[in-house]
Amino acid sequence: EESNALQQSLDELASLEKDMSVAERDSEVFRIKRTQHIYASRRDILNKIPTFWYIVLAENDDFAEYISVEDLKYLELIDNIYVHYNIADIENPSEDDLKHFKDFYITIDFSSKDGVIPDQKVTKHFKTIIEDGEEKIISEPVDIKWPHELDAINPALIKKNKGKQLSADDKKNYRLGMKSFFSWFAWTGEKPGKEFRNGEDLTRLIVDDLFLNATKYYVLALPNDEDSDDSNEDDSSEGEELDLSDDEV
User: Fold this and answer.
1) Domains of the chain (ranges plus CATH)?
2) In what ranges is there compositional bias, type Acidic residues (predicted)?
């Protein structure tokens, strides 16, 4: 009897855990739906601020850890970064829709500057799956036109032009190109060691930090008026006469 009672209690607890998971899911879906249009409105405002996203990316030390040095000069070509969840567009989601509520898109707009890179809007699709009991992000590769100046390290061009016969320099450039932010657009999360490294970490940084806290990073990067005022204050020692007498103390 005690064993049956214990099992019944465990079953009831398991049922409550399922209810809690559903409640947490529904709360997250509600948050996404309520905030998505707010971020859309924010995007319209940010588009009016020159170099907004360049400043945000430059302000974030973690972002620099995931890209190559060669990428830094091209960050100012980014006009917009936007994260959109599929579930936000579904008025009455089904249970199947709710299973995929964490799927999302990241759209990045690039603007041409002296012909360095073509104007382009690149949208990359991401899915959240469970693998070995852990959440994992995977993605579909998407085409992007690289800056012309990086043609020498563009992995796709190297493979296309050289075929399977790669010289030592070709392989070096290929590996260098695979570390570039532009290779992240081809990342899938299903080819460890054979594609852009740390693709999931960079994706999470963009979605969970850079996009959500973009305004905060921008404001932090602005000149501090108080510091400017302090730097302009007169030194209290200015105007004092200096004792240049030879008298010993």
Assistant:
1) 7-221 (3.30.1120.90)
2) 224-249
